[in-house]
Amino acid sequence: MEIIVFQERDSGVHKIEGVQNFGEGITIIKIVSIDEFLPDFIEEPEDFINEDFSADLVLNFLKHPDLVHRLIALCEDKGIPVVSAGKKGAGFTPFTCCGLGKNDKLGAYGDKFGLPEYKVTLDNDKIVEIQVLRGAPCGATWDALQEYIGCSVEEVLTRLPRQVQYFCSADPSGFDPVSGKSPVHFAGYVHIAALKKAIDEAE
Q1: pLDDT single digits (tens) 65-87
Q2: What local confidence, expressed as pLDDT, does residue 163 receive?
Q3: Among 60, 81, 109, 129, which is least packed, fewest CB within 10 Å?
Q4: Which positions ≥6 away from 174 have C-beta within 8 Å?
Q5: Number of domains present in the structure of the chain
Q6: How far apart are the C-alpha atoms of 181 and 202, rounded to whole Å?
Q7: Residue 159, Cβ neighbours under 10 Å: how many?
Q8: Residue 59: helix, strand or coil by DSSP?
């Protein structure tokens, strides 16, 4: 699967690293970085994003609304699915990258990244193995597990949300007015829910 990433002032750098480290069968063929100062209103967004691109999926980490609108419109015209976490509009727009549900249009990316999924092996009340089946493209799902082998279930359930929030690259100030939660809080919640499910299903 071939992916193009659009980012603004390194806004996608951690997720790019995560996709490269954990994305099996996925190749980032191009990274479009917009690093210059941008005015509040961009009259000609085509000066920053031209239409000469093709891929199986686009990851949108742009922040400026005029650029986001331009990119999504181009992807719609080209029939390329686009993931724009934390934004509104067309395409796939989960609250966070680790809130992305599964969809056939997302191919190998959607199989590996989005709402976290674990497989856990227990020995009585101790965790002896945790396998990540699906996780956050920033890598937090994998990074947060390094010290938990041999720990009790209760200890891991207590500590994991804080660890995920520590590694999470989402903007903690981006509160959702409906839930009152920030993306970082949301990330902790979906990871602990996934771990509880894996523990319940463990043999």
Answers
A1: 999 999 999 999 999 999 999 88
A2: 81
A3: 129
A4: 86, 182, 183
A5: 2
A6: 30
A7: 15
A8: strand
